[in-house]
Amino acid sequence: MKLNGTMRVNEKGHLEIGGCDSLDLAREFGTPLYVLDEMCFRESCRDYYHSFTQSYGAEVIYAGKTLLNLAVCRMVEEEGLGLDVVSGGELFTALKAGFPAERIYFHGNNKSYAELAMALEAEVGFFMVDNLCELELLNSLAEKAGKKATVILRVTPGIEAHTHSYIRTGQIDSKFGLVIENGQAMAAVKRALELKKIDFKGLHCHIGSQIFELESYSHTVEVMMAFANKVFEETGCHVKVLDLGGGLGVYYVEGDQPRPVKDYAAVTMKAVLEKAAEYNFPAPKIIVEPGRSISGPAGTTLYTVGAIKDIPGIRKYLAVDGGMGDNPRLALYQARYEACLAGKVKQQPSELVSVAGKCCESGDMLIWDIELPSAETGDILAVSCTGAYNYSMAMNYNRLPRPAMVLVRGGGAELITRRESYEDLVSHDLIPERLR
């Protein structure tokens, strides 16, 4: 397993994260347990801030959908990044954490009346408007509230990134955004400029996630800047802000080749400046929206090995006390992960096993075919790079409580999300009077 952030193997031969022995973490907080490496998370934020903001004056906004709780909001704010939220719940979390509303960007393809009203009342910085229905509703709500909504329109550039179909978003056939090719996007820009309570600032796109080819970003810039030029030619309005989304890939397993953030920034900004010069208009302010590449490598999940089942000549299963309830990505995307036995890191692999979860589903697998040292019931299994889309997608299937999360740094561990209890699971249930 590749060691991320502050991970190291200590003198006991145990996996250590943030100066904390992972076996001690499992004993103190129980398993399954999400472990968030604070310094790894912050250093990734700083890498983006330096590469984009300090070097080019671009703005970096963290994609909260990948991992969001009160503590994460605080760290993002302290590192100087903005925040991308996609629901009323994420917005509420940010506001509850005291995140500055003017640095919040409200995304989502189907924002409700209540969510838009909540965001207007909070005076969020930007509404990333996905469609004409939303644009009209937002204008109406802003008029009633006596406010003006600052808007960036999401468009689909017609670019198919080389990634899993479920996380590819820039192609024309997508639930997200207004299509450039068929004229929808231009019609939306013109309508936004007509509406009295809409302050149109710019354009947004997102081509997908887990992207390693930087050429995808330079091509996106070419398409978006060409459209920005067309907007100026047809309306006389300069696009002041261009949000290019996120999607930079991270290392999960051998073969993944993440590109440095500084290279991502250089390729993107070079293309922007070249196209601005070609079209002879001021370069728009650039925004990027990293999520996975900040939160992913900072997260590790600890599990306890339970039942071990060997089917001779077929497969050996290690069952752990978590699974698709705390990490549904393998079931959703055929995601792949690396892992180690946290107390046997120095031991050589001796057997090929598959790691199964405890949900009542054949598809509840965490890892197919991984070489590990000989495992025993009670061993702690550490699965790396689980910071993104694990906690945020966790569920209560089979009425399994969602795990706790601890923030580790300098040998200390602090609980930032408590483990759900069985009482929590029934706390919203009601029994009708006639069934009592």
TrEMBL record:
Its cofactor is pyridoxal 5'-phosphate. InterPro entries: Ala_racemase/Decarboxylase_C, DAP_deCOOHase_LysA, De-COase2_CS, De-COase2_N, Orn/DAP/Arg_de-COase, PLP-binding_barrel. Pathway: Amino-acid biosynthesis; L-lysine biosynthesis via DAP pathway; L-lysine from DL-2,6-diaminopimelate: step 1/1. CDD domains: PLPDE_III_DapDC. Residues 49-295 form the Orn/DAP/Arg decarboxylase 2 N-terminal domain. It comes from the Bacteria. It catalyses: meso-2,6-diaminopimelate + H(+) = L-lysine + CO2. Pyridoxal 5'-phosphate binds at residues 247, 289-292, 389. The active site is at residue 360. GO terms for biological process: lysine biosynthetic process via diaminopimelate. Substrate binds at residues 292, 329, 333, 361, 389. GO terms for molecular function: diaminopimelate decarboxylase activity; pyridoxal phosphate binding. Signal peptide: none annotated. It is an enzyme of class 4 (lyase). NCBIfam families: lysA. HAMAP family: LysA (MF_02120). Homodimer. This is Diaminopimelate decarboxylase. The lineage of its organism: Bacteria, Bacillati, Bacillota, Clostridia, Eubacteriales.
